[in-house]
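ARCHIVE CARD
SHELF: 3
SLOT: left
DATA:
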Amino acid sequence: MKHLYTLLLSLMVFIAPLNVMAQSKVAHINTQQLISEMPEVIAAQNELKKLEDQYGKEMENSVKEFQTKAQTYQGDAQNQTDLINQQRQVELQEMQQRIQDFRETAAQELQKRSADMMRPLYEKARAAIEKVAAAQGFDYVLDSSPGGSVIMASGKDLLPDVKTSLGF
């Protein structure tokens, strides 16, 4: 019995360090916070805000012009012929359509510019995360921001073994 106890104790002492060595090192980072604090991101957001304000002013001017014309035409409608009133109605509809088209184009342009400006910054942040993680010996880096995922995974991938186990 004493030999069995000694044997078990010896095995536990031998196996415990192996188990610790086999564990992967895991770290986490809030990428949303990192990106929001990057100076380049702040500068890009300021530039996008300026563009958005510019589009907003253009939109506001167009709407004011439309409203002024609509009020003028409505007040003068009784003094004009049906033909002129119909032409004015068509003109107002066209103005309204141009305003709507501008609104859609501006939104698309803002979205495109944002994506073009932010993509390299996201890639820069990811590369920095991977570099620091590799230098510190981490196998996995998890994104701790809401809805986050795995950023880096250099540990063992079980997919081939599971496929083999399933027979494909």
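SLOT: right
DATA:
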Amino acid sequence: MQKTSETRLTLAYVALLAVLVVVYKLIPRYLNVGEIGWNLVSVGALGLFIGSRVRTSWAYFVPIGAMFVADLLLIPPLRALGYSSIDSSTPFTYLGFALYVVAGRLVGQKELAPAKIAGSSVLGSLLFFVVSNFGSWVANPAYPRSLAGLIQCYLAGVPFYFNTLMSDLIFPAVFFGCHALLLRTVSTTEEVEQLS
């Protein structure tokens, strides 16, 4: 497959993933399934994937843009539950998702090694945990403005980390695997057409 057609296909795949990530984030809230799926999101995986496969600086804006669109669309259902989808911790959350792109840079553009992808995923989830919970500490006046308050905030975030970690192990496997399958299928199809 020619490099330009592979690049176009990858960019189309990223656009599709971004739309699916937004839809996936909205479905539990609009179907009112409760808090069971909170933090079980695919935005980090999107950042990780694009960080690996698209090496331009605008890659950082894709997960942030997807998250922003989802946050805007989540205003009505979250307001009904007494929550806000955008608050003073939001910039920290967005920074956390941008850091997934940095973690994705550790995976080569063509690399599919499960250990490398999983390691980068865990790194991304840890960076997200540190940054987003720091943002929660800054935004939530219930936590004392002290080291003890910060530690309390991080400890309160630990139960939510499990869903984040599971998301960051499952979704990247799906995103990278489907992309590899897509490229292989298109490449095989083009080779067959050239032989005909």
